[in-house]
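Purpose: get a first structural picture of the assembly so the mutagenesis plan has something to point at.
Setup: three entries, given in the order below. No constraints added.
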Amino acid sequence: MSRYLITRALVSMLTFWVIISLVFFMVRAAPGGPFDGERRLPPEVEANLLAAYNLDQPLARQYLDYLAMLAAGDLGPSFKQKDFSVNELISAGLPVSLGVGLAALAIALTFGIGIGLFAGLSPGTRTDQLLMGAANLGLALPSIVLAPLAVLLFAVWLGWLPAGGVGSPAHFVLPPIALALPFVAAIARLTRGSVAETLLEPHIMTAHAKGLPQRRIVIRHLLPTALLPVLSFLGPAAAALLTGSVVIEQVFELPGIGRYFVQAALNRDYTLVMGVVVVYAAFILLFNLLVDLCYARLDPRIRIDG
Amino acid sequence: MQIRPPINLTILLAALIGAAAQAETLLLGNAGEPQTLDPHRYNLRLEETILTDLFLGLTAMDAEGNIGPGAAESWQVSEDGLTWTFSMRRDLLWSDGRPLNAHDFVYAFRRLLDPATAASLAYFMYPLKNAQAVNASALPPDALGVEAEDDHTLLLTLEEPYPHLPERLLYPTGFAVPGHVIEDKGDEWVKAQNWVSNGAYVLEEWRPQAHVALSANPHFHEPVAIQKARYLPLANEQNAYNRYRAGEAHAIGGFPANELEHVRETMPEQLRVSPLLSMIYLVFNTERPPFDDPRVREALALVVQPDVLTDKVQRTGNFAARSFVPGLVSDYDGPVPGHHDQPMPERVARARTLLESAGYDADNPLEVTLRYYDDGDGKRTNLAIASFWRQLGVTTRLHHTELKVHFSDLRQGDFEIAQAGWIGENNPGHYLDLLVTDAGNVNYGRYSNPEYDALLNEARKQADIGIRHQTMAEAEAVALAEHPVIPLYSIAVKRLVHPGLRGWHENHRDVHAIRYLAW
Amino acid sequence: MLSALQASLFGSTLARFCSVWIMLVLAGALFGTALSGWDPEAIDWDALEAGPNAAHWFGTDLIGRDLFARIMLGARVSLMAALIATSVSILIGIPFGAFAGLRGGRTDQIMMRMVDVLYAVPFILVVILLMVVFGRDPLLFFLALGAVYWLDIARIVRGQTLAIREQAYIQVARTMGAGRGHILFRHVVPNVAGPALVYATLTIPAVILAESFISFLGLGIQEPQTSWGVLIADGTRTMESAPWTLFFPALFLGLTVWSFNMLGDRLRDQYDRETRGYTRSIETMRAASE
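Result (structure tokens, whole complex):
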């Protein structure tokens, strides 16, 4: 298994390098440089600025310089946020994004598996249909609709929760819920299908025949098998959570790195874009590696084929 | 059909909370996240707002918006208008207790124009003698026309007379910076833990994307009422509006325009509308056919109705423009193009004739691309303009990009007709400079008229404001007759301010220093 | 197969509702703008931000444009996005997966590893970067979305191909000297049509949602074109003074996505009943792309 892991780790690192390089050149290919704004820049000032950020060097040279900095753990200065380095910006924003993301994941897993289990144990019944219909509804109402409505309802009209920003635990109630909703639905659907399937498996039938209590069957025999698809879903789910978090951070005005990404891309703040991509890529690749580890341990039948 | 919950209750609650917030932090909504707090490296108005609280320049605005003494008590200008002598206050201290004097300002101006600083707004101080040369590395920084005659007298020598210097010094580019910290910490001087400034407030904490926290400077020469304040980056108007109503911000600038009527009904005393010195206009790329043909430009200009735009389409209190220099500018009698008094049908007919003579009619319709950046009003304003032109059989394609790309492309001349905006100073030259031949790439349309340039050059040599402005008005008339731009409107700033906050006065530059505020 | 399809799409009341709704939306996308009598770009100066009434069935937006016409136009764009993206993903995914499945061994490993790796990339980053770098061309946008969703079908097809590879008629074809391409198109592809259809039904709502996200951030469809995502973004800005501007676009988006998902579920259940074995793979891979 360690061979498997090492291979995976190596592939991950290769992937990481490919992603970084791709994004590096893509961003610089974009029209508009980092120093365009409303006010004019006389040519000598523009020249000064470009020189200050090494943007007047040939592209290949900039690329190699960047890789060298990256290896040393330095993500460089931000072109737009002139008073901060990318490291500082990311360390300010990452805890917020991680907090919301992990909270959302926890909510999604708890409720998703719960609902899916309940529905899957009695497939085809009205309960099942109702729950799955509701789950589909959860998928159909995107966060771009629900989140602004939630802010209006809970923050402005009722005044129960803050409208945005950070500063207290109350600020972290709405965002994870809004983020988690579609995943609750997705996980519920997944779990339900898998549970319904597994119910028909021989070893479950045997356990029933043996007269074991329902609870025991579910927990010890059903769940471990039934949850495997959910586990393998976690990898892409992390990616999708990141996606969703960009919108959530925008609506709730959370100072997380998702907002940095959109802003930095629009502002051509090259180093900040790269910094966020580095963090996202690293996080996701790590997460996937972890999931693979769990998967391999839980189900020795599954090898590299997945 | 509107959903209206008991908002008044929320406002009442917010007011009560505000009353209890005397010792609490003042929360101000700002237009976005600042990119730097180094006054020499700033670029955006939203940074100006914060910097005005952190620093004190030679001149400063008082609570009502009048320009008056700041770090300098008084000043005089020589007969020829080229030498300005500033007498500094004697009781100035940096926030770390160190005395501040004229030498600090000399240091600051030199640093501003030093090419190594790469200050993007260095050109604000180009009126200073040799400033441009220094910034282009042609001369060393000490060749700059600034000198400290003694500890409390500062001499500024100019290239040409510039009667508006006190206003120009209001910008952060004219602020003093703590040389003793910069020499020690280098670029880290802007960090909160190293922060030293001379304004009413100092930087306590800057949490990116979350807030910039200020606290009162104990060494400032005047006491202030508000001890702690925070600027929140609220770029999204709907979010700002939500936060304000939830009591999480005490003042915001800009809220969704469609809420204006509701705000007028439910919280009129919190609404503050003030005109801003600004000009939003359409610019033609005069180097690209058919916009090099003045007939086409005139035709398109004739059918645009700025008052319909402001009163019917936007309904946000913006001020329709007739000439290029905003009507708000003091001591200036601008020319008004004749067509504004003619009835529309005549204008449309004349426009059609002009287009036909330029070769465009039903068989050969004119197709144009109108570029704009979305600032809330942009979309519907430009759709309306497109519908104005549709009367002439002109098809308009709208091209919308974000601000950066928009202005970058404009500077490269990559457009046909584009929306542009200029928020500026209280002098006509500031706007008329946009149409000068050698204005650089901020003359987006590359308009060039030697007669216009000559008139402006003549005007700039005048030290007397009356003659200066008169000549400028003549120049403006010359330019407007050729329609290189279509002036649209001046912005009316709409703000919501907590009813318990005192000292908030509207002014033409929309500057509200915290030190004049109190609960 | 046809009868199975029919059963899935019209078998129950709920299914009928969903199918009818989708057909209505399709009709609306094709003819809807003409139906309302209003051009989606025309400004009605007398009815700015008007509520639903006889002249404007869904009311008007902030600028005075008829909301019904705009929603129909948005339907066209959103459905086109879904169609193009799904087609692209099928066009890339089927050959990719089939090739991997047929080849097996090392090639298969590498190809599937690529898929695993690409799964890890959050699509929004890619699409945003593409949009920012190459401009806001809608076609490019749809293609970019398609390039994100081919992973699912590749996996499914590859799994399917592995399963049938060993079957007799493939062996026979091989011994008869049939080339790989021939086998691919004549034998494999028809067999994956089933799961492909199911997958497509479930990808369409995913793409519609994805497009609405990106347009909400301001990076997707631009004026005067519109999509449901843009309409929702505009609607959230005026939802207090003009709630209909949010209500109707959200209703359309929600109902359409929900209908596609419901039908897709039924189709999938139908195929599950007919052929067991790859249920899990579809379920897993499908849900994984949400």
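Chain C has one domain: 2-281.
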